[in-house]
Amino acid sequence: MLDNHTLAVLILTVVALFLFSRERIPLATSCLLILAALAVGFALFPYQGSDGVVEPVDFFYGFGHEALIAVCALMVAGQGLVRTGALEPVGYMLAKLWGKHPMLSLLATLIISAVLSAFINNTPIVVLLIPILINVAARTKSSASGILMPMGFATLLGGMGTTIGTSTNLLVVSVAAEMGVTKFEMFDFVLPAAIAGSIGMAFLWLIAPRMLPKQPATANNAINRVFTAHLHIPAGSFADGKRVQEVIEKTDGELKIITIRRSAKEGLKPLPDTVLSANDRLLVHDTPDKLKQFEQVLGVILHPDDPDFDGHEHLNNGKQQLAEILIHQRSPLLGQSLQSVDFVSRYHLVALGVHREGHHQIKALPNGLGNLTLQLGDILLVQSASERINALSLMEDFFVLEGTTDLPYSKKIPLALLIMFGIILLAAFKILPIAISAIAGVLLMILTRCIDWGDVIRGLNLPVIMIVASSLALGHALTVTGGSEFLAGQFLHLAAGAPPAMILSGLMLLMAILTNVVSNNAAAVIGTPIAISIAHSLQLSPEPFVIAVLFGANMSYMTPMAYKTNLLIMAAGNYKFMDFVRVGLPLTIIMWLAYSVLLPMFYYLPH
Questions:
Q1: Minimal CA–CA distance to 540: which of 504, 592, 495?
Q2: pLDDT tens-digit profile of 333-347?
Q3: DSSP code string of 135-195
Q4: Which one, of 523, 532, 502, lies nearest residue 593 by Cα?
Q5: pLDDT in tens, 550-566
Q6: Cα separations in angstroms, 19 against 24, 126, 219, 437, 517
Q7: How many whole angstroms separate alpha carbon 442 and alpha carbon 540?
Q8: Which among 555, 557, 580 has a CA at the least distance from the CA of 169?
Q9: Of the chain's two ends, which shows fewer C-beta atoms within 10 Å, N or C?
Q10: pLDDT, tens digit, for every residue of 111-147?
Q11: How far apart are CA 248 and CA 81, in angstroms?
Q12: DSSP codes joined into one string, 40-107
């Protein structure tokens, strides 16, 4: 017979699962409601458990839980890789490969996405690859919808391979350890995850793209304006001494040179065999992203290569941002050139390019951008320290358009990668727990200026923090009141007489269904104590049952709301709800069947 507290917690669990599935209610609000209900309820109606009176404040322990600390620290460390641009070379390499071997490129994209997601939060990986894959689809005249969803699901498959691959993994492992299960090390279940993941990847590579409708991707909300700019060639850069054709090939054919300018009077046509030299200026029309990419790949610069140019200090001072500013009727720049108003010294900004609409588009800049007379409606692309860019919005002289962009600390890439590898290796070799190595890594990233505190805040995700804390509180309530044992008993009653391998398979399927309706973290934390209770009832090792919960709770494929990256690719790929069901349902069945066969083999469960 259930006591009142156990019954109340079970009812609250059902309410929580309902709230977590409601899109109209902010997830953080639902989480706070559950936390408040637990704390207030146990304060007003004290409960005497087997270990004494349950303290209401214990339900807030999730905010200081090792799993949440590790999740937050790893999110911030992942933000460090994004902020320094450490992942961009991967994206650029994939973009080059796509132009030559589309099918092999899709496979490479899926594998790289999966491997990276085993160690890094998959959100920045998906955010990085979405624009690349959309551009690839546009260049190859194919549908982006056939590749975005497989890529997103590949990151979910990869995240199942290690204890730090997803926040779900960290939660399951931590909760199980608290309940007396031997703590899982980083690669303890990588082998079954790799075998089953390979089967899932084959489906995503060969079958899933053919199941998805051919439709155009949604354009990026930010307007990619085309700017006219000069690429200045410094001495010793890649472009110095190279033929035009070699330089264009280095950019995978992306660079389109309009004119080669060697002086105000001398302009050369960009013939393939023309040899470029130091101090040449290449006139180009392209988007800010592409212009900055050319800088990185070719070693060219978007400002004068002159020791007397006083903008160098502003380009090397703190966090750098790009902004687009409109020349309006009251602008002091209207009818003036940047040189005449002493733009750099006066505003501490460096102009990199200019956008002019329609047939007025600039055909040449013989005297450089600094001597161009600016017209009404011109848009300047400028770069400077973030505090200078932010100050622009407070000045009546300028109207700053939407789309201000943080520029990566490219020089910090090796350092950020070294720190990330250190975080992983210290945990993998059991030198430090992942929560401690990740926190130490974040501190090193701050001290070495790979990130600042603004990046730390941006790296954290409030809904994730709240769902972890509230799920841990709910799991704690189920454990201390005996609710998890009751649910485990009901599950075993329904599976009466079934062999352990079938019970494990059924538990995993239940988690797979639950994770597509509510949060995967909630499903994991609620399912873990139930799995341990089932194992104890069967007098078997709890490890395979805990892993079944972990794998099942990660099968977030069937609905767009099942995982945050699903929502990202839904918007970018212009998918409908049923597109996720069409691909996600068979993928879930494939993964469930694969793990149902593999886990009994690896953990010697009787069939």
A1: 504
A2: 889 999 999 998 888
A3: HHHHHTT--THHHHHHHHHHHHHHHTTSTTSSHHHHHHHHHHHHTTPPPPPTTTTHHHHHH
A4: 502
A5: 999 999 998 887 787 88
A6: 9, 27, 32, 35, 10
A7: 40
A8: 555
A9: N
A10: 999 999 999 878 778 877 887 787 777 766 677 888 8
A11: 28
A12: HHHHHS--EETTEEPPGGGGGGGGG-HHHHHHHHHHHHHHHHHHHTTTHHHHHHHHHHHTT-HHHHHH
Handedness of CA 327, 330, 336, 340 (dihedral sign): negative
**How many Å apart are CA 495 and CA 448, to the nearest integer?**
56
- Name the residue with tokens 């809904």: 463
Do residues 480 and 41 make contact, with C-beta atoms less than 8 angstroms apart? no
Give yes or no for a contact between 375 and 327, defined as CB atoms under 8 angstroms apart: yes
Express the helix, strand and coil content of the chain in percent, nearest 5 each. 60, 10, 35
Place of tokens 């917690």: 9
Helix (H) or strand (E) holding 381, with range, is strand 379-385
Structure tokens at 39: 């704390």
Give per-residue burial for 103-142: e unless 16+ CB within 10 Å, then b. Answer: eebbbebbbbbbebbbbbbbbbbbebbbbbbbbbbeeeee
Q: Which 3 state secondary structure label does DSSP give 407?
A: coil
Q: What angle do CA 271, 272, 277 make, to 5 degrees?
A: 80
What's the rounded Cα separation, in Å, for the pair 559 and 150? 14
Placement of tokens 């031997």 in the chain: 182
Q: What is the pLDDT of residues 424-460, one digit of tens each?
A: 899 888 899 888 999 999 999 999 989 989 889 888 8
Phi, psi (5° rounding) for residue 452? -120, -175
The pair of three-digit structure tokens given for residue 430, joined into one six-digit string: 């059991």
User: What phi and psi values does residue 11 have, to the nearest 5 degrees?
Assistant: -65, -45
In 3D, which of 465, 460, 540 has the Cα closest to residue 501? 540
Separation CA 162–CA 513 (nearest Å):
22
Q: Which two tokens stand for residue 25?
A: 């209610």
Q: How far apart are CA 440 and CA 451, in angstroms?
A: 14
In this structure, the chain runs to a length of 607
Side chain identity at 535, as an amino acid letter? Answer: A
Rounded Cα distance, 332 and 585, in Å:
60
CB-count exposure of residue 287 (10 Å: 0-12, 13-18, 19+): middle
- Closest by alpha carbon to 464, among 171, 51, 102? 171
Closest CA to 244 of 226, 257, 235: 257
Contact between residue 289 and residue 324 where contact means Cβ atoms under 8 Å apart:
no
Residue 47 to residue 73: CA distance in whole angstroms: 35
Q: Degrees (nearest 5) of the Cα angle 69, 72, 76?
A: 135
Q: Give the CB-side neighbour count of residue 31, counting CA atoms within 13 A.
A: 22
- Report the 10 Å Cβ neighbour count for 485: 19
CB 231 within 8 A of CB 602: no
How far is the C-alpha of 107 from the C-alpha of 130, rounded, in Å? 16
> 244: closest CA among 236, 253, 365?
253
Measured distance CA(561)–CA(366) in Å, rounded: 53
Q: The whole model's pTM is what?
A: 0.74
Residue 180 structure tokens:
């007396």
Cβ atoms 388, 349 nearer than 8 A: yes
Residue 191 one-letter amino acid: L
CA–CA dist 170, 488 (Å, integer): 22
Nearest CA-CA partner of 296 in 408, 462, 429: 408
459, 420 Cβ separation under 8 angstroms: no
